[in-house]
Amino acid sequence: MVNVILFDLDGTLLPMDTEAFVENYIKELAPQVAHIVDPNLFVKSLWAGTQAMVQNKDRTKTNEQVFEETFLSLIPVEKEHIWPTLDLFYRDVFPTFSHLSTPTPLAKDVVEQAIDQGYRVAVATNPVFPKAAIEHRIEWAGLSHIPFELVTVYEESVYTKPHVEYYESICEVLGVDPRDCVMVGNDKQEDMSASETGMKTYLVEGNVIDRGEPSFRIDDQGTLEQFYDDLKNEKGIFQVKGVETGERY
Predict the structure, then answer these.
(1) Both 111 and 232 in a single domain?
(2) Do residue 176 and residue 138 come from a single domain?
(3) Are both 139 and 233 inside the same structural domain?
(4) Selection from 114, 208, 211 nearest residue 162 by Cα
(5) Contacts of 207 by beta carbon, 8 Å cutoff, 6+ apart
(6) pLDDT score of 213 more than 50
(7) What are the DSSP E strand ranges found in the chain?
(8) Is the same domain home to 76 and 140?
(9) Do 153 and 174 sit in the same domain of this protein?
(10) Which one, 31, 141, 182, 238, has least CB within 10 Å?
């Protein structure tokens, strides 16, 4: 019985060109630390730390811990000398990137409709960013008021997409069976890999990311507007079967 909806953020609830966003993010961040570390070395170390998070399978370490270990091992600077500058960047500069996204009121309608219908909701965004950066993007999407049961951030998460362990860990936190969940996203690899756990998947069209391989099962797809229509009218993967028992699947 499907009763949990996991929503990706970038490109799904918050329409954007993810590649352009990341490019601008790096372009603006590097100069902020130029007085502390060479910007080129900083960017190289930042990507190495990110890659370490993506590859990590050690469930005893959070993504934040994995990132710090790799990142700090590559720059000649102690954490206490650079972290305050990074914190200020996420507080004061990162919010100015909102123009790189194109928020839609449909995001609010979709999530509120899901809650109204009794679904549990969570934000399953790839947890390679600090909580502050993810909270800003949730705000841009007009969803700060939503009582999400879980938002995956790098300070608290252990795995990343597209690992099945990432989705399994979400189910552990929420106390649900993967078969009771629908993963909604725009990335054919990172989001649709949730199908490997037994979750149903919905591919949101408009900002689709497809690297070609590997290929994962997609149970349904359409624009965010079509998703809203399916959800509201209980069609497709949200079709109600057994009205007398209220059972959804």
Answers:
(1) yes
(2) yes
(3) yes
(4) 211
(5) 11, 12, 15, 16, 17, 18, 186
(6) yes
(7) 4-7, 120-123, 181-185, 200-204, 220-222
(8) no
(9) yes
(10) 31
Closest CA to 140 of 186, 108, 165: 108
Radius of gyration of the chain (CA): 19
Range(s) of the domain holding residue 22:
18-98
Task: Decide: pTM greater than 0.90.
Answer: yes
Q: Which of 148, 47, 25, 46 is nearest to 95 (CA)?
A: 25
Count of positions (residues) in the chain:
249
54, 81, 98 - which closes a domain: 98
Residues 6+ apart with CB under 8 A from 35: none
- Examine the fold and report which residue of 53, 68, 98 is the final residue of a domain before the chain moves on: 98
- Does the structure show a pLDDT above 50 at 244? no
By three-state DSSP, how is residue 202 classified?
A: strand
State yes or no: pLDDT of 48 exceeds 80: yes
Q: Where are the alpha helices (DSSP H) in the chain?
A: 18-32, 39-55, 63-74, 79-88, 105-116, 131-140, 164-174, 224-232
Distance in angstroms (rounded) separating the CA atoms of residues 63 and 127: 7
117 token code pair: 């219908």
Say if residue 214 is preceded by a cis peptide, omega within 30 of 0: yes
